[in-house]
Amino acid sequence: MLLLTRPLPKLDASVAAFTQAGVSVTGVATSDIEYNDIAIAKLHQYLLQHSHATLIATSVFAVPALAQAWPDAPSYRPILAVGDATATKIKSHLPQVTVFTPAQHTSEGILAMHQLNEANCEDIVIIKGEGGRDTLQNTLRLQGKQVYPFCVYKRVALAQPFYTNNWQIDDVSGIIATSENMAMQLIASHSDHILTLPWVTVSERIASTLRKRGIENVAVCEQATDQALIAWIKDNWEY
């Protein structure tokens, strides 16, 4: 059995996907998502006045805020999504828009996209969560772009981790960590035994943090979707 970290709103759907694929998991959420209505209202006002801006959605949780702030987003302005799950969610909320995703589903992947280097790409709106990485905005500003980040949600730590079923540490053969924050919260709430288990995460940055924490067996799956993680596990782990 594997432990799978996801924020609370995504937990049940992810566990269902793994179960349907024949991979036994216990879902664990260490955080929930809380939206910032004031930031969403500011995003709405900005987009009304700057409909030419290029938008970047950094996670699936940014999408409901974008749809609330700009339900009539014009089809001629591209929206860049950090990954396939975010792109799919954008299309479900805003079917009229054009969505692009990078080859590498990270901030660095977005920075490599040609859409950010086009002549008409001068104003860039980044829709993100509080406490997220600043790589995008810092790099784009160094390139001379006008960048406007809007932190429309934040992760709120749960008082106790939430699990989808009862489990014992001896039953766990591996851990799937989809964010650095949740991985650290999981480590803090359990014995050092979980440091000896194999882990897979979704970026080299997170893997490096886990190695510094003392976890030696850390692998990277380049995409964070359930389907990508399931495929990686079936190719690389016994489960």
TrEMBL record:
Q: Known EC number(s)?
A: 4.2.1.75
Tree of life domain: Bacteria
- Residues covered by the Tetrapyrrole biosynthesis uroporphyrinogen III synthase domain: 15-231
Keywords annotated in UniProt: Lyase, Porphyrin biosynthesis
Query: Transmembrane stretches, by residue range?
Result: none
What job does this protein perform? Catalyzes cyclization of the linear tetrapyrrole, hydroxymethylbilane, to the macrocyclic uroporphyrinogen III.
Q: Does the keyword Nuclease apply?
A: no
Pathway where it operates: Porphyrin-containing compound metabolism; protoporphyrin-IX biosynthesis; coproporphyrinogen-III from 5-aminolevulinate: step 3/4
InterPro entries, alphabetically?
4pyrrol_syn_uPrphyn_synt_sf, 4pyrrol_synth_uPrphyn_synth, UROS/Hem4
Gene Ontology biological process: protoporphyrinogen IX biosynthetic process; uroporphyrinogen III biosynthetic process
- What this protein is called in its record is Uroporphyrinogen-III synthase
Molecular function terms from GO: uroporphyrinogen-III synthase activity
Q: Which organism is it from?
A: Alteromonas australica
Q: What class of enzyme is it?
A: lyase
